[in-house]
Amino acid sequence: MSTATAAPRSGARAHGTLASVEIDHRRRRASVKGVELYLSDGEFRLLAALAKEPARILTYKDLLEETFAGAPGGSRRTIDSHAARLRRKLELRGMPNMITRFHQLGFRFSEDSQPVVAGGGA
């Protein structure tokens, strides 16, 4: 099965669906069951990073490299804050427990949230 990618690259999917979460990288938008999620840039980057490899625990180091790539101000606390807000927004859209936190380690999508290839492509 193919997964959504964190950033569109030449030949990579720019649009993907993970469970009922749809990610459109070109427009930097995400939706749940067709209803748009209003995400900050950091929340979107975190969602994209987690969607890249669902079911894999991404460590704080992985997430900092993936979401803040050398930008100043990135820390574990920043990741925790973005993740808490993202989880809350997903829960409000009827998608509780999609993101699992592993104390002092990192985050992953729940195992029951397996990737599904979406209709859009690069």
Write a brief caption for the model.
The chain is an alpha+beta fold. Helices cover 31% and strands 22% of the residues.
Cα end-to-end separation: 17 Å
How much helical structure, as a percent, in the residues?
25-40%
Mean pLDDT: 77
The figure for the number of domains is 1
Name of the CATH superfamily: Winged helix-like DNA-binding domain superfamily/Winged helix DNA-binding domain
- Architecture, CATH level 2? Orthogonal Bundle
Neighbour order of strands in the largest sheet: 4-3-2-1-8
Computed structural class = alpha+beta
If helices are DSSP runs of H or I spanning 4 or more residues, what is the number of helices?
3
Strand element count: 8
CATH class: Mainly Alpha
Keywords summarizing the entry:
single chain; 122 residues; alpha+beta; Arc Repressor Mutant, subunit A; five-stranded antiparallel β-sheet; three-stranded antiparallel β-sheet; 3 helices; 8 strands; 22% strand; globular; disordered N terminus
List the helices and strands and how they pair.
Layout: E1 15-18, E2 21-24, E3 29-32, E4 35-37, H1 41-52, E5 58-59, H2 60-68, H3 76-92, E6 99-102, E7 106-109, E8 115-116
Antiparallel strand pairs: 1-2, 1-8, 2-3, 3-4, 5-7, 6-7
